[in-house]
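WARN no homologs supplied; continuing
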Amino acid sequence: MDKDSLRKQAEEILQNGKGKAAAILEDGGKMDQLLQQVEDKLETVPGAGSYLAEVPRMIALLKDHMQKDYTEAPTKSLIMIVAALLYLINPRDIIPDRYLGVGLLDDAAVIAACIALTKSDLDTYDAWRDKKETV
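OK structure emitted
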């Protein structure tokens, strides 16, 4: 599978996950459960790669949003992030994670697509967090 086709498939996965992601975003308990599952999965992945290393930033944004500390992120971006995290914890993805090495390529592609679609909002969140820490 070439890089462009993997990227297109990753974007399609994000689009298909929007409905479920929107529902989870509105349910605090389900959102907490999702974030915990994502954090648990990342703990088991040695050398997750540069794209997967962005997941904690996404989790932090969602936690700050759920606590109503950070309310600037557009719902569209929040839904994309939740959809990407849902895919990350899905055991039945394009390339199963049990295949060491290559099993995370699809996860990284979905996270990369999400970052590309939400980059300006993630950067705005980083600036907010940096400002908050210096106050």
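The chain has one domain: 3-134.
OK
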